[in-house]
Amino acid sequence: MKQRIITAIIGLILFVPVVYMGSWILELVVAVLGIIALFELFRMKGNKIFTVEGIISIIALLGLLLPQYAAMILPEYMDTQMILYLFVLLLLVCTVFSKNNFTFDDVAVSVLGIMYIGFGFRFLLLTRYSGLDLLLFVLFVVWATDIGAYLIGRKLGKHKLAPSISPNKTIEGALGGVVMALIVAFIYLTYYPQNYNIGWMLTLTFILSIAGQLGDLVESAFKRYYGVKDSGNLLPGHGGILDRFDSLLFVLPVIYYSGLI
Q1: CA dist 53 → 39, 42, 58, 188 (Å)
Q2: What is the pLDDT of residue 204?
Q3: CA distance 190 to 247
Q4: pTM of the entire structure?
Q5: If we measure between CA atoms, which residue out of 105, 145, 120, 107 comes closest to residue 225?
């Protein structure tokens, strides 16, 4: 527990200033985080990232994550969907030249990972581009959900939420996470006024809190399927990058499609 708290504090000290600065610094950090997350997914699957297939996947990931830079070197008629499709074809070709050491299943996992991680972190950048206040709001909601779910679940949790996926999560904890998120969102919106309707923002907070917990459960399902405790060991007490950003990868698309960006 002590290690977990110390890691969280150090992470906040390092990450929050980067979010505040934004610009190319945030883009660089997010790109590195995305590559690490893809590496974690590859490792869970039992594949190596530093192979031809892995490098192709990294380039495709960066193309989705930072399309504005890809547009500088690609023809104008090539949009994100076309770029992704070309990389899918390249990965399929790799199944032939690897003599099926890199299989169709590996291609499927690679493409899913590229889209899940690439678009997810892309939405983080888009949220920051729209304004620091909105991204901070999202971060506070996610963190409040995590803390509320952990504390309430540990104190009052009796009914398992998804025992076959994540045995420690409870219905009481999930509800506690939603309540904590609503409280934090209300305080944030009260003392840091935005040009948003507070009723709509609280409704959105409810949706975001649930989406974040679903993202956490999806990550738990990955780990359960592959038989690993954590996606990585980069963050002592917290696991890997996917373990820490799983909620955001589900929450940020909701923000994007809510019309606030």
Answers
A1: 12, 11, 9, 45
A2: 94
A3: 25
A4: 0.89
A5: 105
What's the average pLDDT block by block, 10 residues per block, for the chain (261 residues)? Answer: 64 81 92 95 89 93 90 78 89 88 91 94 94 91 93 90 89 95 93 79 95 94 88 72 90 89 76
The single-letter code of the amino acid at 126 is L
Rounded Cα distance, 217 and 238, in Å: 15
- SS3 of residue 163 by DSSP: coil
Chain CA centroid to CA 45, Å:
18
What HEC string does 118-139 produce? HHHHHHHHHHHHHCHHHHHHHH
Whole-number Cα distances in Å, 56 to 39, 121, 249: 13, 18, 22
State the pLDDT at residue 4.
Answer: 62
Integer CA distances (angstroms), 202 to 104, 107, 144, 192, in order = 44, 40, 14, 14
CA nearest to 213, candidates 159, 241, 249: 249
